What we know:
Layout: H1 7-12, H2 17-28, H3 30-50, H4 57-69, H5 74-86, E1 95-96, E2 99-100, H6 103-113, H7 125-146, H8 154-165
Antiparallel strand pairs: 1-2
Helix pairs in contact: 3-5, 4-5, 4-6, 6-7, 7-8
Amino acid sequence: DSPWPDRQSFYAEYDGPQLRQLREFLLNSADQQVAFIITRLQQALPGILENSPVDRRNELESLFHRIARSSPPFGMYALVDYVNFKGEGSAPDEQYQGQGWGLRQVLEEMLEGMLGDMLQVPASENQLLEMFSMAAVRVLENRVANAPLERDESRWLDGWRKRVATYIPPGLN
């Protein structure tokens, strides 16, 4: 849906009137943009829980809140960014071959990776965020593996890995 057909066209018009207008709009609407992404996160948890197995809902909700409180502002940033980056993981268009790649799948991947059926307490908040980032990478790798070959989604994987690495506080990644 971009008004520019490719990256080259975008940069060719970088100082043109259309991009100046876009930059001005983005700058003047920053408050509304922040409100939108925070509202999206607030609305994501009920949808995630509703679309999750009943016996996992309490664990998922607990994990979500623990991440949100981890190493401020990194935990909240990780949740806000991921849900706005890849969705909550409940919509049919957020999956290939019946497997999703949204926030719900990342939380479920974290739970699967923890020992036993009970949510284990990581050694630190930073470790929890590292686990979130690693689970996100596994979910995104699964997305690429399940994507139609003609989409060649592997071309984005390195950038996605770099993005989710920003969820980990400096000094750990």
